[in-house]
Design a protein that fits this description.
It is a single chain. The longest helix has 32 residues, at 67-98. The protein has helices at residues 2-20, 25-46, 67-98, 105-113. It has 117 residues and is an all-alpha fold. The protein is elongated. Helices cover 70% and strands 0% of the residues.
Length: 117
């Protein structure tokens, strides 16, 4: 189980880094989403996966699941969803303004209009 989780985290991280290194905005957004998923799975795995264990401590229960990693991952999912929505809107606005989704689009537009060298 640990090997499968580690492999999944590694694949998500590798794909995310590869996509973030691209020179276009939409692959960068997908890469950031992959990195977010990798971090969420990592945080969830660090909380020690326990099967058939109650998430709340009760008297007489010797093994219980720690609810803190689950709460952290849930919070991270909500925050990353909001940030992804904001980045998609900003990227779409940049694409509509410049007609290109490359990260060098603003430099090209400025140099074409003569405002920058």
């Amino acid at each position: 189980m640990e090997l499968l989780l580690a492999s999944g985290i590694g694949v998500l991280t590798a794909a995310g880094v590869y996509l973030v290194a691209r020179a276009q905005t939409f692959p960068v957004i997908i890469g950031l989403a992959f990195l977010t998923y990798a971090v969420n799975v990592f945080l969830f795995a660090m909380g020690r996966l326990t099967v058939n264990a109650p998430p709340i401590y009760e008297s007489g229960v010797k093994v219980y699941a720690d609810p803190l990693p689950q709460a952290l991952v849930l919070t991270a999912i909500v925050i990353s969803f909001g940030m992804t929505a904001l980045i998609v809107v900003l990227a779409l606005r940049g694409f509509l303004e410049s007609g290109d989704d490359g990260v060098q689009a603003n430099e090209r537009t400025k140099s074409e209009s003569g405002r920058a060298s």
